[in-house]
Design brief:
mainly alpha, 70% helix, transmembrane helix, transmembrane, membrane
């Protein structure tokens, strides 16, 4: 599924070269917002930060 989405995105970028500048501008605008970057990193790291199960009670 990821390969299909990546292929579709690359196909669109080849067909419409101006789309690359638009995508780059949107990505730069989103990355310039520290709150959004921190939220995204926290959302991605959340599954790995679960508490370990207790081995003794």
């Amino acid at each position: 599924m990821k390969h299909l989405i990546l292929g579709a995105l690359l196909g669109l970028l080849l067909l419409i070269p101006q789309l690359l500048t638009v995508v780059a501008a949107v990505a730069a605008a989103l990355l310039s917002q520290p709150v959004l970057v921190a939220f995204a990193l926290g959302a991605l790291a959340r599954p790995y930060l679960r508490r370990p199960k207790r081995w003794a009670r």
